[in-house]
Amino acid sequence: MSQAGAGRSLKREDAAVMAEQVMAGEIRAVARVITWLEDQQPLGPAVIQQLLLPARRAMVIGITGYPGTGKSTVIDHLITAYRRLGHRVGVLAIDITSPVTGGALLGDRIRMQHHADDPNVYIRSMATRGQQGGLARATRGALQVLEAAAYDVILIETVGVGQNEIDIMQMAHTVVALVAPGLGDDIQAMKAGLLEVADIVVVNKADREGADAAIRDLREWCPHVIRTVAVKGDGIAELIAAIAEHERLKDLAQMPS
Ligand SMILES: Nc1nc2c(ncn2[C@@H]2O[C@H](COP(=O)(O)OP(=O)(O)O)[C@@H](O)[C@H]2O)c(=O)[nH]1
Ligand SMILES: [Mg+2]
Question: How much distance in Å is there from the Cα of 22 to the middle of ligand 2?
């Protein structure tokens, strides 16, 4: 590990050494740089400046939705599926409202615990520190760090509530919005916000009453609606396929004609 500690004044060489370690995929360096970004220490951006992105860019997938809709459970299954495909997976779980939902991150950790021993999976919770917009900035940096560390798939989980989340979701190539039956008015509210940036809508907890009505309602409005029962892993293969298809179309759209 480099000597570039938080307490010392920044040396250009320190940032370069850390950048090398990040690009070598060293988890400790990755974690440390993300902490610097969260804490808004100048070392963070200094390392970012020295990072080179790999030729094959990561697939960045945003997963958003209200608390309790099942985002972390879905992500747990997505990690398993992408690992089976041989991908290295990074997860950024963003908690905008950490002082209030202190327990949510713990819950996320438990739900994604299966992957704790897999060196090819890196799961990181990020919380708000300091001023408005700080977390979105730190998230953008963390994304660059994970890309430089050559993760193939990067999943970003946000709690769908406001502008901050929309800003973060716009960093993703494919945005998946989760809803659960019984949210009622919340789904209407989401249509004006997060569903607007969504490429794919997932109706999770389809084992519950009201799922079919929610799916019918949403299909009038978004062509890609998928039904999942995340606790059983149902619908995850369909979700993976829909994400792949969206990525493919997006790549085609970006190809020079
Ligand atoms: N019945 C049912 N419960 C689910 C399903 N998916 C997740 N849950 C449960 O819903 C709760 C919240 O899930 P979590 O993944 O933490 O939601 P998050 O807050 O959106 O990340 C947990 O108790 C899960 O076990 C599902 O498809 N059906
Ligand atoms: Mg969660």
Answer: 26
